[in-house]
Amino acid sequence: MATATFLLRHSRNLTAHHSRLVTLSRATTLQLQVNPKQRTNLIQNNNNILRFMSSLKSTPDLCDDFEDTIRVVDPSLGLHNLGGKNHFGGQVVTVKCHEDNSFVKQLAKTDGKGKVMVVDGGGSRRRALLGDQVAADCVNSGWEGLVIYGSIRDVDEIKALSSLGVQALGTHPCKTLKRNEGQTGIPVEFGGVTFSSGDYVVCDNNGIVVNDAPMDK
């Protein structure tokens, strides 16, 4: 409670983006009062996200600062910015699916403040794993962005969402099947990099970088 109150007291000095993270810290802390260990871990994790988001650097600067630990997604994979925000980052939440965005759709409606959804769609270009409606859900839930090893659609509408970053292989006009198939929270790999939930990712026009710990020094 003390930590949540402290964060709220200082939220006026933060940007609106950071204030959303403070709200997340307070709300989730209150829900876990019965478990002190969980509460401590949650507060620490949210503080890490807040600190990381407050000093988000470009991927070239991060490669210079964290050259011993940082992982760079192979640029030849072809991922590029298709969303309204070209520089974004956050804590990784993973999804693995193939031409079925059921789990992407479900996660889009959960709290995504300070987080980036990393979707391993197997590189399929035959279906779109993200459209305007799911993207709008992501905005409403506070997601920082998505990295999609696959395709999206409604690209003009998604590009107009200034608070949401999206990197993907390209576009396809057809929606996915809905078989409720996929997995979340498991390590996924593409572009020579393994992403695990809890990692930290930063994306911009230069590329995509990943690190196990917050890149905030």
TrEMBL record:
Binding site for Mg(2+): 154
Residues engaged in binding substrate: 131-134, 153
Record GO terms (molecular function): 4-hydroxy-4-methyl-2-oxoglutarate aldolase activity; metal ion binding; oxaloacetate decarboxylase activity; ribonuclease inhibitor activity
Cofactor(s), by name: a divalent metal cation; Mg(2+)
InterPro entries: RraA (IPR010203), RraA/RraA-like (IPR005493), RraA/RraA-like_sf (IPR036704)
EC number, as in UniProt: 4.1.1.112, 4.1.3.17
One biological process term in Gene Ontology: regulation of RNA metabolic process
Organism domain of life: Eukaryota
Keywords: Lyase, Magnesium, Metal-binding
Catalytic activity as recorded in UniProt: oxaloacetate + H(+) = pyruvate + CO2; 4-hydroxy-4-methyl-2-oxoglutarate = 2 pyruvate
Coiled-coil regions listed: none
CDD domains: RraA_family (cd16841)
Family: Belongs to the class II aldolase/RraA-like family.
Stated role: Catalyzes the aldol cleavage of 4-hydroxy-4-methyl-2-oxoglutarate (HMG) into 2 molecules of pyruvate. Also contains a secondary oxaloacetate (OAA) decarboxylase activity due to the common pyruvate enolate transition state formed following C-C bond cleavage in the retro-aldol and decarboxylation reactions.
PANTHER family listed in its UniProt record: 4-HYDROXY-4-METHYL-2-OXOGLUTARATE ALDOLASE 3-RELATED (PTHR33254:SF4)
Quaternary structure (record): Homotrimer.
Name of this chain's protein: 4-hydroxy-4-methyl-2-oxoglutarate aldolase
Species assigned in the record: Cylindrotheca closterium
